[in-house]
Every structure is written in structure tokens, then in C-alpha cells.
């Protein structure tokens, strides 16, 4: 609808590296409000992790920040490793490790420059080409995966993960 409040987006006209990133962005853009912000392909330098690129960093008012690593192409899990196959190649990937590293890099950057206390942060991985992924991976539980079905309302999964942090950290 015209004049509906929309989230702020940085950069103004993001250039996505693949269709999967655009799919996840579009789904989130539709769900977020005008007080929320999406950073696309955010590049930061971290003293511990070096240069990192965050596919999407979603700042949700009064809830926290979700860092989302997006993997397109054909994704599979063999019980030990994640594999990604696309037109370029087939390779082993570490989406959970990448998402966590990116989240810690962003969190540490914010903590070094933010004086208002800690901001709740969490990470997720998006596989927008798949539905109902059941992998049995301890490092990447299904609660941390946004799949094709979740693209109908990805914000629900993100908010659940952010809210779970509070539940597990309170006495």
C-alpha cells in the first residue's frame, strides 16, 4: 500500500550478490516497521576476525539485532559437513560459524562505541531455496534456520530467537 511505513535500508539501493539474498531481504522488508533498520552486505573490520561481510544485519526496535548469513544454491548436510552447490562449484561451507563470527564482530564493534548498555544480538542462517530442513546438527539447530516456508513471515523466527536469549539468561 502507498505511504505504509517501511524500514530504513542501508545502503539506500542495496546490490545483492545473488537471488537468495534478495529473496530474504524482500521478505524482511515486508515484515519490518518504520523504526527498524536493515543493513545489507555490511562490511566491517574486526581486530579478532579480520574483515567480515554480513549479508543482513537487522536492527529491530526494542528487540535487538539479528545477523543473517544467507546461502543460496543447493544446500545439503551429510551428518558432518554442510555442502553448497551452485553454477560455480561445489564446496563445504560453515554457515553457522560464519554467522556467529559475523554476529560477534558486529556486537563487539557496537559495544566499543555504544554507551547505552548491551544490545541483544543473535544469528541465523537463511536457506531460502529449501523447505522443512531437518538436519540434526547441534551447531545449526532448525530454530536458527530460515527456510523457504519461513519467508512467509521471517520476522517471527527472528523475534523468537531474540526473545529466547532473555528466557535463558534470566535467573
Condensed summary:
The chain has 171 residues and is of the alpha/beta class.
What does this structure look like?
The chain has helices spanning 19-31, 95-113, 154-169; strands at 8-10, 37-46, 50-60, 64-70, 74-77, 82-85, 90-93, 121-127, 145-147. The mean pLDDT is 88. With 171 residues, it is α/β, with parallel strands linked by helices. The chain is 28% helix and 31% strand.
Give the topology, please:
Layout: E1 8-10, H1 19-31, E2 37-46, E3 50-60, E4 64-70, E5 74-77, E6 82-85, E7 90-93, H2 95-113, E8 121-127, E9 145-147, H3 154-169
Average of per-residue pLDDT values: 88
Beta strand count:
9
Number of helices: 3
Strand order of the largest sheet: 1-2-3-4-8-9
Tell me the β content.
25-35%
| Alpha carbon gyration radius | 16 Å
Q: What are the secondary-structure elements, in order, as H or E? A: EHEEEEEEHEEH
Helix content: 25-40%
| Biggest sheet features | 6 strands, mixed
In one word, what is the shape?
Answer: globular
Structural class designation? alpha/beta
Cα-to-Cα separation, first versus last residue: 44 Å
Low-confidence stretches: none
